[in-house]
Amino acid sequence: MAPEEERPIERWARSRMAVGIPSEIERRVLLESPRAMQPDSRERFWRSGLGVLVRMVLIVSATFGAAAVLSSPELGFMRRGFDPEVAIRVSAVCFALSVVFVLALLAEWWQTGRERPRGAFGVALIVLLPAAVTLLVVHRQTAVVPWAWMAPAWLAAILSVVLLLVLVVASHPVVEAADAPVLDVATLTPGEIEELLAIREQTLRFLADRERLAPGVVEQARHVPLGQLDTLDARQ
Predict the structure, then answer these.
(1) Cβ neighbours of 154 (radius 10 Å)
(2) In angstroms, rounded to a whole number, what is the distance separating the alpha carbons of residues 130 and 113?
(3) Do residues 137 and 76 lie in contact, with contact meaning Cβ atoms separated by under 8 Å?
(4) What is the pLDDT of residues 187-217, one digit of tens each?
């Protein structure tokens, strides 16, 4: 007899990306139903471990770019670090990633109807400030730095200023709305509900054993109807 195929939620619960957030657990439980509205490939990527890693790299790339320049004894103030030529090249690569990041934010801003999401100003400043510091540090040097290597920092600074301007001038606040449910629980049969509740409890217990979830949540979840586990988020 062939072994039973592992469910997606079981693979997620065993992975390093598993989190003890009741609403996220409930979402993944509901996706186990054949009737659930499955996420598209783009959403699956950004929710995957690789997608989270890519997002983190893009967010911190400008900071790493400035750190590379500041770490050079000849350019910055550190006693040990990159040689100037290496520091400039590493910085250029980091700011090239920042340019991609800001362009992606601008594209998303346009596609979402020019909405101003929460934290947008902070994200723009995360790119602008390191780029400005890098340009000021390099500008102080007597040696001529090839313009091509500084172009990414200039582009990152300019585009982040553009992003700030469009957020202030041409944007409107994002309209807060609850995410569309992946599954209408009211359409399920009693047997389907019982099966999903069993999957939910098994997942909760597994995450509690991995210390990703407070043990008390497992007991509290027994009294929460299917589809309403998000009510326990505030108790985490």
Answers:
(1) 15
(2) 29
(3) yes
(4) 899 999 999 999 999 999 999 999 888 888 8
